[in-house]
Amino acid sequence: MSCMYRRVILKLSGETLAPEGFSNDGQSSAAFDAARVDKVADVVARLSDMGVEVGVIMGGGNIWRGRFTDDMNPVNADQMGMLATIINSLAVEDALTRRGKRATVFTAQEMNRFAKLYTARAAIDCMERGEIALLAGGTGNPFFTTDTTAALRAAELKADAVFKGTTVDGIFDCDPRTNPNAKLIRDITYREAVEKGLRALDLTAFLLCMEQKVPLVRVFSMDDLENILRVAAGEPLGTTVHP
Question: Per CATH, which fold does 7-242 belong to?
Answer without folding.
Answer: Carbamate kinase (3.40.1160)
